[in-house]
Write a structure and sequence with these properties.
Layout lengths: L1 H33 L11 E4 L3 E5 L4 E5 L3 E6 L4 E5 L4 E2 L1
Antiparallel strand pairs: 1-2, 2-3, 4-5, 5-6
Length: about 90
Amino acid sequence: MGVSVAILFFILWIIAFQKIEEKIIRKKAASLLKKGDKTRLLGKKIMLIGENGNKVIGENFTEMIPKEIISDIGIYDDMILIFLIGYRGYL
């Protein structure tokens, strides 16, 4: 009986996880947009990829991103997403 309840809970968690994760991401994004300067989050940027890390150049800032803190890279038709350890991402 206990195993079947655990399996049922696991299946429900898998189904609900995507919606829960999306809701959390939306809340974080809304929170970031409400706070101060949004130029780092939105807008066009230039990224220079080097051996020691990446350099992101925006209209009002330049930032070095060491390759040690990059957790994942997503490549799409219209954008490249670089996810850093933590919650930040560059578009």
